[in-house]
Amino acid sequence: MTLAAIVLLPFIGASIPLILRQRGRASISVASASVTLVALVLLATLAMQTLNGAVPSFFLNWLPNIGLDFSLRLDGLSLLFATLILGIGLLIIIYAHYYLSAKDDSAKFFASLMLFMGSMLGIVTANNLILLWLFWELTSISSFLLIGFWSHQSTARRGARMALAITGGGGLALLAGILLIGNIAGSYELDQVIAAADQIRAHSLYLPALLLVLLGAFTKSAQFPFQFWLPHAMAAPTPVSAYLHSATMVKAGIFLLARLFPVLGGTHEWFTIVTLTGLATMLFGAYFALFKSDLKGLLAFSTISHLGLITMLLGLGTSGAIFAALFHILNHATFKAGLFMIAGIIDHETGTRDMRKLSGLRKFMPVTMVLAIITSAAMAGVPLFNGFLSKELMFMESYEQQLFGALSWFVPVLVTLGAMLSVAYSIRFVHDVFFDGEPVKLTVTPHEPPLMMRVPVIILAALCVLVGLLPMLFVPNFLQPAVDLLAPSPLTIKIALWHGFNIPLLMSVLALVGGAAIYIQRAELFSFNRQFDHRDAKETFAYIVSSVTAFSDRLIQRIETGSLQRYMAALLLLCILFVIPELAKIDALTGTRAQLPIDSVSLVGAIIIILTAIGTAAFHHMRLTSLMMLSVVGLMVSLVFIHFSAPDLAMTQLVVEVVSIILMILALFFMPQKTPKASSGRRVARDVLLAGFIGGIVGTLNYALLTRPLSSISDFFLVNAKPGGGGTNVVNVILVDFRGFDTLGEITVLAIAAAGIHKLLNNLRPFMPSSDIDGRPWHRVKHPLLVQTVAQALLPLALMVSAYIFLRGHNLPGGGFIAGLITSAAMILQYMANGVDWVKHRFDYNYQTLASVGVMIALFTGIGSWFFGANFLTSWFTYLDWPVVGKFEIATAILFDLGVYLTVIGATLMILANFGQMTTRHRPRQEGN
Amino acid sequence: MEALYAITVGMLTACSVYLILRGRSFPIVIGITMLSYAVNLFLFSTGRLVINQIPIIGAADQYTDPLPQALVLTAIVIGFAMTAYSIILAVRVRGEWGSDEVNDTSPNDGEGNR
Fold first, then answer.
1. Which N-terminal residues, if any, form the signal peptide (chain A) (predicted)?
2. Is the Cβ of B79 closer than 8 Å to some Cβ of chain A?
């Protein structure tokens, strides 16, 4: 629980600065520092357990299905990093309070910083690999915010983007690697992954998993060849650089290497890749650090170099190397954070970080000078400072390894060379800034910074000296649990200042002397370096990014042409491609079911359907003709239904056909009567081909289906329709009873569509032709008398028929749908024959209300069954003896059907009557919004 | 008979797909309507082709499968709603833009805002 609190505290703390935004900078800083301090105190209470060999842990199920649990642990390694994160974090917060100017948005700064701190703590304490990855990506995002904090500077924006692209991209590779590992191990819990280490190393996917994980670690830790983002991230405020780029974020990659060393390490691949990458990075960083004139640039390359050193040690993988790596992580964090803060102080007080302008600051900033000398000496590996001890160990390990056979000697030589360069740039950092004549190029008179800005540096410098002088006092206790965790063979930590005269000492001496020599001869080296044309990584990166963007842009423009025709064709083509392999699996086209003989009537009917369908497509330029042909197809379809024992369908189809053709003719009034010939021959050929293919596939599928035996669940409906539903028309009983819920949904859809149409028609000003296509004006008699008379006579008849169809629906073909459509058709006839005004005068009823009342009746009929303790839409029926009529069945289903009936009338007339009004002066107005 | 039925459904589908691939809204609506016929016939035929066995208890000795019929009845009505909606949409677009072209040929979505 305490452990979870430590990790979550900074996340909670991230919101506090935002809440306190109005309360001033001091309270924001104090709040952030207190949160960190509390977390640090909590960590201290748990640290005792860890140091005594226990592993405090926390477990909470999160998404167990994908192997993700909120599972934390605090072992030796976690403790080392968590202490660094919180301890240095606290110093950074104090420092940042004085560093940030009043113009900076400190609430945003501290919120991002706390977010970052929490994410880092999550990485180091995660006991679940996916959780670790999650926090890993969170650090990428929060560091993006921090690097780009001064978002008005284009360098900051670019640096932040580059860091995000590289570390975020590496994070994705890491995820892939983790998924591979988890798949092999069967779990993402760290304990179980470590237990399965041998299995993982022996697996055929070991190398891909290793490479992916290393890609993640190397991008994060700025290892060669991904080092280029780190110098550009120096556009961040200095506290951010001091925190992210010395102690924490770049160490996350190192942490990952250490964390997974027991799982992935110890193999030949690990050793070769990790050691050589580390070595290359170390030399590369050290060499370029020497040439940087920007203080932070020098420190950035120096950080790259030191990270390379640690990576190399982890690659070597002996117990001694592991210890040396962990020790150097600690030492590097202390002196490098201090050095960054000093660079920030100098920048703050002089206004520049350019070493070509800085010189002779010793008179003005003596205290800062002492601190700089101490921390630089630690960086250079001067005896009596902490850096010396870990470098000495590193020399020892590089000298003792025999991993490259006869060529092993080149490792210690190159390491010594790297150390020389490191000494040279450390001397440069101190000498160029604090000595080297008078400060002539400065515009301001420098002075010491406020005391509290120096305090964090003093603490760090004191640690450098303390550890350097008395290493055995607390280092072994602190590091032993981590070493026990990682070292392949048991190792008891022993650090001595003096080992006697031996090779590592010789290497140290060589490094110091050689470094001083290089510094003295630096002018030669500078002119040597100038002859190379250094291509800026930023430009290369920008070039890659812009060419990828341009490529995607071109691709999008090719795909997204705005042509719906083309999208549709592509979609259909894809359908064909997906269906064909499946169809090819069907071995026989014709199934075993007995087929019906063809009779002449059916044959003629089929020919009519086919011909009119072709006609509809072929004459689509003449829209009215095409529409007429379509109506023939629709009528023929209803005949098909009646032929194959589906009277209900036939009736529905017939009425729907009438209503929808009327609607389309009405719509055609507002549309161009002809389609201009627009399609090219090629497009027509393509579409015919595509259509032919799809038609062929559908036909084949249908034939294969028709000739196969049927097994259906419908026996239940046939048996229970009468005794259970009280009706003999099984189709209708299914609609209003068995599957009544479907029908309720359906009439709701109908009502919604009608409402949508109603809205679409609001404020519509359609194009109104004053004459037909050939230029003839409309006939002056709008409503012929003959039609009027017949229509009026037909209305009561039609209503009676629909009432009859409605009532008999439960037992014979009919029902609410059909009855509703018949009523609608009769009403539409009135509109057509007599005009909107005439109908409105006599029947002024709101169709929206009708449709909603219909849905309501159906819904409440369903709900009604609850009051009788039955399920939704359970129907009930009984028989009544009516005089004259005789025995009559009454069922709640008929109430439901009434709802259907009313909805269908309401929706249909809402669509058609509203649309019909478009042709008159009574246009619907916008009602509300 | 089965082959004839399948050919008819296939032809209806082909013609409607061709119409749906046109560049103007009215033929597309006609195509959608015709496609709904084809789909309804297809769905209906999952109960197989059966003559003189209407699913009304007592009307015949044997009954055809009533379930596809119930589904298709629903589909016809929903299909009507869809046809109506799409045709009104087409009219609205014509009224707003003055054209019944479905392809987006307006030049305003240039490269700049991607």
1. none
2. yes
